[in-house]
Amino acid sequence: MGRGDRKKPATYEDIEALPVGWVGEIVDDALYASPRPVPRHLRVASRLGALLMLPFEFGRDGPDGWWFLDEPELHLGPDVVVPDVAGWRRARMAEPPSDAPWLTLAPDWVCEVLSPSTESVDRFRKLPVYRREGVGHVWLIDPARRTLEAYLASQASGAGR
Description:
tt1808, chain A, alpha+beta
C-alpha cells in the first residue's frame, strides 16, 4: 500500500471532536469511539474499585501501597487508552497528579470490563499496548458470562489469539 493510500493517523483532536458522552481511544493510529458505559458495566467496575481500595489503597486488612483510579485517560507512547480501573504501586507513583488531564505512567494493574461493543478492542488492541508498556497484571471481567480472566504481562499479548 502506498503512502498516499493510507488513512491519516488519528489524533487527540479526533477524540476531542467526539460527541458529548462518548469515550475515544487511539490504538495503532486508529480511533476507537464508544458511548459511555451502561450502568451494569459501571456497577461492576465501581464495585471492583471499592473492594480493592479498602485493603490495597487504605491498608484496611490488607497490604496498602496502591492507588486506584476509575477510567483514567492514559497516554502510553502513541496510544491513548481509558481502562475501566487502573492501579499503580505507590513505590512507582507516590501520588496521582492532581492537575494533569491524563497520565503517562503505565499502571501496574489494569481491569477492563467487557461489553459487546468494546470486547474486541479490549482484547486484541489494548492488551498488546498494556504488555508493551509493562503493565504487570491485566484483568478482563465479563459481566454477562460472569467471568474474570487474569493475565500476567507475559500473557497480555492478545487473549484468544
